[in-house]
Design a protein that fits this description.
Blueprint lengths: L3 E4 L2 E4 L2 E2 H7 L4 E5 H14 L6 E5 L6 H9 L3 E4 L2 H9 L7 E3 L6 H9 L4 E4 L2 H14 L3 E6 L25 H10 L6 E7 L10 H16 L6 E3 L17 H15 L2 E4 L3 H4 L3 E12 L4 E5 L8 H5 L5 E3 L6 E9 L8 E9 L6 E4 L20 E6 L2 E6 L4 H4 L3
Parallel strand pairs: 4-19, 5-6, 5-12, 6-7, 7-8, 8-9, 9-10, 10-11, 11-12, 14-16
Antiparallel strand pairs: 1-2, 2-3, 4-13, 13-14, 13-18, 15-18, 16-17, 19-20
Length: about 400
């Protein structure tokens, strides 16, 4: 169920009319549904009920502490990729034994913190990283559990900028190098190899690349007689941003993973992000100006690419819907754009749209994942507010940044 719906031609977030919200809160702002967040997590858990995985939410998709706290209370762990994300996660109440640390370029300071906090796994991505962890662990008098990330050379058929499982991508070790590492890990006496991890990309809409990856991992483990506590299968599950997008059938994938788990006698870790938070938020914006050019009308919004980077970075398309519906239509083409001094500060084009005017409000849909987490102060613009519809009340979960503090030297 979607908790963003029209009622009598007005757009609502759960029980709240967005037309009323914008009277008191300055646009642009992110607006979240707590019910949608909870429902998404519980549905993911239900789809993999037979697998009983440890779900480690991908913090990079949205690291707002309120979201982390809600997911932590539901039993989620966390997948982190920086010292800041690790500290945020711990401060939110998620226990260290449910945290995995991923990423190709972890610093010595980040590794020291992860070792000190005794997190579940550090997923290493190079032999050099393993040697550094071993040195630090020896110095700190600890034995550290690691996973080793495999690059399976699988094409997930997703956007090149979010593909992570092909040989030309920077992530993980090739099968050959991973096997060589496993055969020599006894030389690194302060490491304990507890897992193989893999993550082949993001916004994946088919279970076919996942099946291929499972087969590759299974062959490696069986042929080399590896005994592992976990297999970390990553995340990357896509959502339907456009009408033509077909959502991945998680029930089908669940059956494959359950068979994989039984054959190898290991526990499973997942790292979902987008599928948990992607549709939990809309980005509310005001139409600042409408400008006619020779070829189209520009609908200039008060939200910019610094607030929402996905369209500029990935050529991603997010539908933009009016906060108030009316029956009158206008012919296009029209293009929704932002105020940033870059031609890439644009969102979506339509050939037909309802009649809209300056100072009307619109909502950019499904902005919960990689929305606020990718935002910046480009053009010296303050970070915008984040609002949660939660238990019959509106809660500010991030205040709009104070411009006076931003410009203070």
């Amino acid at each position: 169920m979607s908790y963003f719906q029209y009622k009598n031609s007005k757009l609502f977030a759960e029980k709240y009319s967005i037309s009323n919200i914008v009277k008191n809160i300055k646009t642009p702002f992110y607006l979240y549904s707590e019910k949608q967040l909870i429902e998404n997590f519980l549905n993911f858990k239900k789809n993999f009920k037979n697998v009983n995985p440890l779900i480690c939410y991908s913090v990079k998709s949205n690291s707002n502490p309120s979201i982390l706290r809600i997911l932590g209370k539901l039993g989620s762990g966390a997948d982190v990729v920086s010292e800041g994300e690790l500290l945020k996660t711990l401060n939110s109440g998620i226990k260290s034994n449910k945290i995995v640390f991923s990423g190709v370029g972890k610093t010595e300071e980040e590794l020291k913190l992860a070792i000190k906090k005794r997190i579940l796994l550090i997923n290493i991505e190079s032999e050099s990283e393993a040697k550094l962890i071993n040195t630090l662990s020896k110095r700190m008098g600890k034995k550290t559990s690691i996973g080793i990330r495999l690059n399976p050379n699988v094409d997930a058929k997703t956007n090149e900028k979010i593909s992570t499982g092909k040989a030309e991508n920077k992530f993980g070790l090739s099968s050959k190098n991973l096997i060589n590492f496993c055969n020599n890990i006894h030389n690194l006496k302060y490491l304990k190899l507890d897992a193989i991890s893999v993550h082949i990309g993001s916004q994946i809409l088919s279970d076919k690349p996942y099946k291929k990856t499972l087969d590759i991992i299974s062959n490696i483990i069986k042929e080399n007689k590896l005994t592992l506590k976990f297999v970390d299968l990553g995340g990357g599950f896509g959502i339907s941003y456009k009408n033509k997008d077909k959502k991945i059938k998680l029930t089908n994938y669940s059956k494959l993973v359950n068979k994989f788990k039984k054959n190898l006698n290991c526990n499973i870790i997942f790292e979902p992000g987008r599928s948990i938070v992607g549709n939990t938020s809309m980005l509310i914006s005001k139409i600042q100006y409408i400008k006619k050019s020779l070829k189209k009308q520009f609908i200039i919004l008060d939200v910019g690419m610094n607030d929402f980077m996905r369209p500029a970075l990935y050529d991603a398309e997010h539908n933009i819907i009016p906060v108030k519906k009316i029956n009158k239509k206008i012919k296009g083409p029209i293009e929704f754009v932002g105020p940033i001094c870059e031609s890439t500060c644009k969102f979506i084009k339509y050939n037909r749209y309802q009649k809209i005017s300056e100072n009307d409000f619109v909502a950019i849909t499904k902005t919960g994942a990689y929305g606020s987490s990718l935002s910046s102060n480009y053009n010296t613009r303050p970070l915008i507010a984040e609002i949660m519809v939660s238990k019959n009340k509106l809660t500010i979960i991030r205040k709009r940044q104070d411009l006076s503090k931003l410009i203070k030297i």
